[in-house]
Amino acid sequence: MLYLIPTPIGNLEDITLRSIRILKEVDRVWAEDTRVTKRLLDHFEIKTPVSAFHAFNEHAVTTNIVQQLKTGATFALASDAGTPGISDPGFLLVRECVRQGVRVECLPGPTAFVPALAASGLPCDKFFFEGFLPHKKGRQTRLKYLATLPCTFILYESPNRLVKCLEQLSEFCSPERQACVARELTKIHEELRTDTLAELLAFYKEKNVKGEIVVVVAGTGE
Ligand code: SAM
Measured from the CB, is residue 154 less than 6 Å from ligand 1? Predict the structure, then answer.
């Protein structure tokens, strides 16, 4: 059995009681960054051993992990923050488990795009999750595609690229399109700002933007 454990995206109170219990009960926790996960486990006085599972070793360790799961081990997979597999490592391992008949259970819990979308004030009945845009090659193609979507779409963005991202969204969608910048969700300096892309751009151009960011953009509505 493999459990996917969502971990807090800022506020440690957001871990669920079930996640804490499963983290205590499993044979091992596979973690994107063992130091980050050990800090979380220490906070909840969880003594389970932790090993590394990240973008650079996931191909190499997946076969071994699945083998151990097939012979009866129970593992948890955790990323630094949020839900494993959502713009984070996890997909390769889960796919292999599913192919080989190993049970996978994802516990419900934190992920950054859901609170951003739900609190943005933009339509959330239908949406498209893009995650991170490519930095260079393919970026314009994705932006062109996203600009035509009838439904709301969601991007993950770093603070130093936010202004460039808003400039490009304004260019590809239109400066009048509604959007929301959700920054530092669940943290002390949480900020959600919903406005036209032109107004958001004017606001963030003047700021030294810090923290973690989700950008939610209204669709064409057609
Ligand atoms: N697995 C995570 C999830 O379920 O949301 C996403 C991991 S991805 C590597 C990290 C990105 O998620 C950040 O660059 C940011 O775009 C977004 N993010 C994570 N925590 C956030 C927060 N507290 N506030 C706003 N965005 C956040």
Answer: no
